[in-house]
Design brief:
The chain is of the alpha/beta class. It has 2 domains: about 250 residues, TIM Barrel (Alpha-Beta Barrel), CATH 3.20.20; about 120 residues, Lyase, Ornithine Decarboxylase, Chain A, domain 1. About 30% of the residues lie in helices and about 25% in strands. The strands form 3 sheets. Strands 4, 14, 15, 16, 17, 18, 19, 20 and 21 form a 9-stranded mixed beta sheet that branches. Strands 5-6-7-8-9-11-12-13 form an 8-stranded parallel beta barrel, surrounded by 6 helices. Strands 1-2-3 form a 3-stranded antiparallel beta sheet. Helix 2 runs parallel beside helix 9 and helix 8 runs parallel beside helix 9. The longest helix has 21 residues. The protein is globular and about 85 Å long. Bound molecules: pyridoxal-5'-phosphate. The site of pyridoxal-5'-phosphate (PLP) has 18 residues, from helix 10. The site of pyridoxal-5'-phosphate has 18 residues, from helix 10.
Length: about 450
Amino acid sequence: MAQHSSARPFHHPQPGSALACGAVSLEALARRYGTPLYVYSADHMVERLALFQQALAGREHLVCYAVKANSALAILNLLAGRGAGFDIVSGGELERVLAAAPEAAGRVVFSGVGKTAAEIDRALTAGILEFNVESEAELDLLAARARKLKMRARFALRVNPDVFAETHPYISTGLREHKFGIGIRRAPAIYKRAARNRWLEAHGVSVHIGSQIRSAEPFGAALERVNKLVQQLRRQGIVLKTVDAGGGLGIDYHDGSFDAEAKAAEYAAALERALSGFEGRLLLEPGRFLVAQAGALVTRVLYVKQNGKKTFVVTDAAMNDLIRPALYQAWHEIVPVRPRAGKARIVDVVGPVCESGDFFARDRKLQPVEPGDLLALLDAGAYGMAQSSNYNTRPRPAEVLVEGAKPRLIRRRETLADLLAPEWMPAKADSAAIERRRLSALALSARRRPLGV
Ligand SMILES: *Cc1c(COP(=O)(O)O)cnc(C)c1O
């Protein structure tokens, strides 16, 4: 397997040359596809997937990529081709998997606290691997839908292990007070009740304690509790086939030399230690760790302006394209695509959206930049495009996936016609009448306006 000296696929092929993704210059991509532009390295994603697959080679396992991190069809297709399964949290994500890689339907786990009957039906008929059930009411609905369709539903209870994982409060999920999962102490009774229902198969147990968790330790602590539950159920005659450890392994947004291979190995070892005595299949649901560092958001500098003591670098990308800094105070490294000589300055990097929260960096030391220069926001492959919006009626960026020396446009830039398409519009005949009304209103207000104003 190719080794990266860096945690990221972006580098300068020669000193002074433009930043490149693999062998492809970001300047060339920006010229061809415009900005803002998401650029991803396919090779880097495949390498990250392989890190987990290799670290878990000693046990039957399945890496179920968390689709919500980046749900591009081309990325789902790429990872499915390398043996990945998928963790989905909506019927929409299921349709994406079925469209991108129908052969992977049997490798899908379905998480989420609010599954609807229609979503459950679709997943049952698609033959997914298991439902990660988050409440007793959901289990009752699952049983009812399975009975109706005369199919047996494989389920895992998503248990809440009540472990604390140090991360941002919005992305921590493993405490009793969170909306996710079922308290682990209540789980045995629920499994026992389900065992009496012929439409349900107690297939596994799952946990997911949060996101961007840097230490392997809380994952081990959570799985130890899960393993205790598995052993307890086994003594009662309920033999689970899978343990799903969830996702959440974090990356280092600050340090480009972050050793992903060592981190994946440490994580896998902690899970293995916690699972001693469990002979079944281990499922993982990584999202960020697989795709975050493979991606960058490339943006062009529109203006450099001075307000009092502060310097603002205004880019053509904004919070609607990448909301993580505004939403979680997330830190993304920002680098000029073609560095200029000169002294670094302390600047705010901001977008054009009408919100003070529309910033990518505050008081950041940045090499000198001029209007027209390109910047790359690194580690933007996860929860970037996936959380983008059309706020301020801004079309979403295009996306390019680079495989070796070959860039492929995997999503064209949205057009304003795309944005307006679902909306009510005046009919052609109406619009002439509206125009007449507009002109007469204009004439009226001109006559009423006092002189000199
Ligand atoms: C979001 C989520 C994941 C992926 O989390 P990452 O931090 O991106 O690895 C996995 N499983 C579930 C249930 C999730 O909600």
